[in-house]
Structures are given as structure tokens and as C-alpha cells.
Amino acid sequence: MKKIIKGLLVASLLTVGVATPIAIDGQDVAYAKSKVTITKKEFNKIKNGMSYKKVQKIVGGKGELISEVGQKGDPYYTYMIIYYGKDGISNANFTFQGGKLQMKAQALLK
How far, in whole angstroms, is CA 30 from its chain's centroid? Predict the structure, then answer.
């Protein structure tokens, strides 16, 4: 588990400089250095099977797209969104496939 958390932290820190707007299903979903932050309480409300729109509603806005695989519209199209905590270091990652949340992870959220 410690290796996974360390890997997520490294991935999070490597993506801070990205500043490209991305659209998924015709919606802009991510900009680097989003002003939207996430808390552990919000993270705990988010469940597998939720749509990205539902996650946005819980957190209060868009996160940052940090990874995508496949072609948009394909049932196996997969993308990962990150939200940071207020300290700018703690974070939560959400992986979506087929328009639904498949996996979530967090590091150091309060």
C-alpha cells in the first residue's frame, strides 16, 4: 500500500505543470492547477459506478485530467482525474472507464 501511495504522489507531482484543456463527451473536464480542492469527507462520499458529473457535483467542480487511454466513445476509453487538497500536496485520483468510476485512491487528505 505504501508503494501505491508513493507512486500516486510522484505521479501527482509530475503533472503539476500541465495546462491543456481537455474535453470528454463534449464537456471540458480538466485544466491544470484547478482551484477546486477536495476533502477526505468528499472523497469518502464518492463511490465506484458514479459518473464524472456526479463526482464534480460532490467536489464542487472539475479536476485535472492526468491520463487517458483509448479513443473517446470506445467502451474501454479510460481516463484519470486528480483533485488536490487545500495544501496542494494531498490529492485524490479517480479512474473512469465506460463513463463510470472504476477506481479511486487518495493520499494525505484531511
Answer: 9
Q: What amino acid is encoded at 41 in this protein?
A: K
Which of 98, 71, 67, 69 lies closest to 81 in space, CA to CA? 67
Number of domains in the chain: 1
For 48-90, write each residue's pLDDT tens digit.
Answer: 999 999 999 999 999 999 999 999 989 999 999 999 999 999 9
Contact predicate 89/43, CB 8 Å: no
Residue 38 CA to residue 27 CA, distance in Å, equals 21
Task: Give the structural domain span for 93.
Answer: 2-107
How far apart (Å, rounded) are the C-alpha atoms in residues 101 and 49? 5
Using alpha carbons, list the distances in angstroms from residue 78 to 54, 62, 95, 110. Answer: 17, 17, 7, 28
Q: What is the pLDDT of residue 14?
A: 44
Q: What is the CATH number of the domain that holds 90?
A: 3.30.1450.10
Separation of alpha carbons 29 and 58, rounded Å: 15
